[in-house]
């Protein structure tokens, strides 16, 4: 029987509270080990202690981690490997909304405008690369899950910058579909609709508050189930799972129109795919060697 959880080690960012915390809890309840990386040390340490106390053994660890920094992410994944032996599941979930989420009418400030992109996109891109290198080094493959959002698909004028970051997470995740055949790593994204957590507690203005009060929401239970589905369903790679008020929906991928596929081009595609996969495998071996993780 395939062991989905009990011998598995998961790294989860942004899991001191909210969605990440609930996913970590579900994984520990199923027998996995978890290593949490977050900025909220008190809450993160309390979560790890709660999981360890409940299990009666060492199943969880916490490390202060800023997902915008490679050094922090490298230390987080190294802790997982040192403490529990490997990294099998990586969940890049840390994200922010708040003041920078709109972005359109704020001052013209290089640093302030890019901050939400550094956390929501940078944290995912950097986290995925560190996770991939760890998994490829061991040669066992693994599962990577990125937290995107319904804002990765819908246009949301009042939170345009947040929306852009989540569209980026969707595009990045879909583009990693080939890691499945290259390194047996499945990368998918969970895209929740509004869910009651701290990130939507302070919308910053009255219109936002009234919108959030009025809109239907999804449940934390559905959101957690979507993460578990990404882990359990071995067919899922490069997919985006919407978590809506009525449950989980696998979003169809975009298929370009017929004019993009001439017969001459289609004839070359299998050969190009094969060559691309060969090149990617070589580059991955070099990347693992160079990173020395
Ligand atoms: N709650 C929702 O309605 C909703 C909907 C769609 C997507 N999401 C996404 O879900 C993810 C989790 O959010 P949540 O709803 O649990 O909110 P939350 O605010 O409770 O959790 C976010 C966590 O990320 C951490 N974090 C923020 N910046 C960080 C950084 N630089 N480095 C490390 N950790 C950092 C926070 O400290 C916090 O623990 C986010 O990516 C969010 O965009 C949430």
From TrEMBL:
Entry superkingdom:
Eukaryota
GO CC field: cytoplasm
Q: Which GO terms describe its molecular function?
A: oxidoreductase activity, acting on the CH-OH group of donors, NAD or NADP as acceptor
Read off the SUPFAM superfamilies from this record. NAD(P)-binding Rossmann-fold domains
Keywords, comma-separated and alphabetical = Oxidoreductase
Q: Does the keyword Transmembrane apply?
A: no
Q: Does the keyword Oxidoreductase apply?
A: yes
Under the heading PANTHER family, the entry gives:
15-HYDROXYPROSTAGLANDIN DEHYDROGENASE [NAD(+)]
Please report which protein family the annotation says this sequence is part of: Belongs to the short-chain dehydrogenases/reductases (SDR) family.
What is the name attached to this protein's record? NAD(P)-binding protein
Which species does the entry assign this protein to?
Phascolomyces articulosus
Traced from the root, the source organism's taxonomic lineage reads: Eukaryota, Fungi, Fungi incertae sedis, Mucoromycota, Mucoromycotina
